[in-house]
Amino acid sequence: MVKFTGAHIVSIDQFQRADVDLIFEVADTMEPYALRKRVTRVLEGAILGNMFFEASTRTRISFGSAFNLLGGQVRETAGFASSALIKGESLQDTARVLSGFSDVICMRHPAAGSVAKFASASRVPVISGGDGDNEHPTQALLDLYTIRKEMKGKGRSIDGLKIAMIGDLRYGRTVHSLSKLLSLYKDVEFVLISPHELSLPKNILELVRSLGFKVSCSDHLTESIVDVDIVYSTRIQEERFPSKQQADLYRGRFRLNQAIYTEFCQPNTVIMHPLPRDSRSDANELDSDLDDNPNLAIFRQTDNGLLVRMALFAMVLDVVNKVEQYSYAARWYKERQN
Ligand code: NCD
Asked: What is the spatial distance between Cα 181 and Cα 17, in angstroms, rounded to a whole number?
């Protein structure tokens, strides 16, 4: 098992199933704090350096909010233009400096491998928020945590799951990390739906196949989603294409809406997406007419992200057993609807 205290979290490769189970167990205990029923000050005085060198709404704010909810404070840099990297500073120098200011660092960067490189020079734990088209480990953890909850509600587990992954499987780092994570479980069946040019990278496909999982590939949406438990849709990762025109070739190829769902999916198929969904009319990968569908789990995913990220902070900073001790009931009115 991983020794979480002081660890960097940069790839799913570092985890075994027991590690993931432990993260989920800790995530469950974070619910009263995430729901603002209780307040904990366990990380009072601690600083998160939140370094995002690529566009982000939910991952950046989710990391920051998770840290705040544990009582810590957040310092942020968003974008190259406002950081010294634009002046030619190396990732290692930036890491050396920022780790003097922070107790933990979260980082997103457009280059594959960059977060691991940064971590190698950091004096504090580094958690990846995505490195180029490579991996997005915390997104995969929150996705799997969501899958586990959704399946539990239906009397099922992750073992034996059939999942369709749809869209840009080539550049979609969330799919790369989720495929690796699912391959720690048993009898998972992968249905990969993408244009041939955007298929899952060979190394991940080979890993999944070499472990004996059933994998099928298709470029047709409707006939491939008839008997899956989960449809996991993704956005065409335009920013990773050589040009916008090339991304435009694939945009809007796999649109899911309520009519298609009703005709082709099982009545309880769970709909997921790492978000943002591209809601422009030429893409519209998950139509807003699905918003009232109780199986649409996309906003449960984002809520769950908070729990998973709180768990990871508590684990790497070794305060899991102190969260409750430094807590009290929230003083303000907080009614939340699901
Ligand atoms: C994804 C990402 O940035 O990799 N989003 C996320 O972090 N929730 C997917 C995307 O941007 O399409």
From this structure: 8
Domains 12-135+304-329 and 137-299 share a fold: yes
136 C-beta closer than 6 A to ligand 1: yes
| Contact in structure between 200 and 194 (CB atoms under 8 Å) | yes
Atom of ligand 1 nearest to the CA of 130: 4
**Domain 137-299 falls under CATH 1.10.150.20:** no
- Of the residues 59, 138, 146, 174, which is catalytic? 59
Residue 214 annotated to the active site: no
Per-residue model confidence (pLDDT) at position 209:
97
Residue 196 is among the residues annotated as catalytic for this protein: no
pTM above 0.90, yes or no: yes
CATH classification (class only), 12-135+304-329: alpha beta
In the reported structure, the alpha carbon of residue 131 is separated from the centroid of ligand 1 by a whole-number distance in angstroms of 11
Please tell me the least confidently modeled range out of 24-28, 93-97, 274-278, 330-334: 330-334
Q: What is the pLDDT of residue 147?
A: 98
Active site residue 174: no
Among 36, 38, 41, 58, the one annotated catalytic: 58
Per-residue pLDDT, 1: 83
Q: Where are the domains of the chain?
A: 12-135+304-329, 137-299
Catalytic residue among 3, 87, 331, 334: 87
Dist. CA 275 → ligand 1 center (Å): 6
Asked if pLDDT for residue 113 goes beyond 90, the answer is yes
8 CA from centroid of ligand 1 (Å): 20
